[in-house]
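S.,

Sequence below, as promised.
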Amino acid sequence: MTDTSQSVAFVRTATIPPSPPPAMETGAVKWMRENLFSSIPYSILTLVSLYVIFVILSGVLPWIFNGVWNASNLAECREILDGATGACFAVLKERWPQLIFGLSYPAEEYWRPGLAFLLLFFAAAPVMFFDLPRKMLIITLLYPFIAYWLLWGGTIFVPILALVGVVAGYMVYQRLVAGSFAAGFFGGVATAFVIWYIGGLLIPEGASENALLVPVASRDMGGFMLNMMLGVTCVSLSIPIGIVLALGRQSSMPLIKWICVVFIEFIRGVPLITLLFVASVMLAYFFPPESSVDLFLRVVIMITMFSAAYIAEVIRGGLAALPKGQYEAADSLGLDYPQAMRLIILPQALKISIPGIVNIAVGLFKDTVLVSVISMFDILGMIRGPILSTTAWNGVYWELLGFASLLFFVTCYGISQYSQWLERRLATDHR
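The prediction came back faster than expected:
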């Protein structure tokens, strides 16, 4: 007889514990092998890059770590260094209020732009993040009027009347938009302007002297605060104007279409610095002779027009990327033009246009330094003018320009990271 006990296969009842991966397939070694030394050419580039980084850091790090923070002028910095390599960071310690707030902004009022900057995050949060309660949008709507009063000071009646004008204009827009979108839009704008203008005539002449906050003129504002004010204001205004221009360029009405086409092509064909000179010299001639238009307002108008033309082309590309079926779907649902644009077309087009809009916003924020050529003392104007023109700090370049570069880098990098998060959140590559 055959012994069947020897022919039965062995079946294991317990799982064998997993073996550890090879040392070359885990951790930092695996990452370096796959990303830095995956082939001979990549290995050579990695070694050359490491050498370049070593050379740069060997010169920069001693300059930073040997920096002098306590000195009254450049000559004193050099005496403390005594021939050693080191930066003169004392200029940042002494002149940081001018770099941030400008030369003439009252020192005892620095809390006002600081508070306006802090409130900016609360005002932008409901627009930037969708999970927050929509009731917080009231902060976003009120912020422009609060920030204006904090920065410029004076009587509180001006922002209140402007707010009343905007609310009344919106109510007129809601009443008239049912009959005509154009009539509602222009009727709302006209109503807001009339209320603001009439209200300005009714404000007593001595209201500014008796105001809660000390009035500050636009010419007294400068430093990085001026760059932030121009960047936030112009980007916030140029996006809705760019949307209107993009829709107007695709309009079936020849007059509207050609007005938008001429505006966009003309603005895109003119350098920004030329528009800034126009704002400084010529734009005042387009207003009534007795009116005195603030230079800050003129610069905002020109920069907004410039960025709106570029944003319009980016959004037009997003509109062109949508399939024709989206427009047909809106028609099949019985939606009129404003409803179709607001509910179906624009949300998809803006989602596609996020990278281009962010690129223009970052470029616009960096281009605000061009206002220094028209005698507006932003952070670059402060460095080139009042700081370097003094005998105490004449010759300090890398420290000041490096500090300005750091401020712009932090701001632009934050905008870039938010745009990448927004793209992942909206899944722009999976429509």
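Residues 221-431 form a domain with the MetI-like fold fold (CATH 1.10.3720.10).

Coffee later?
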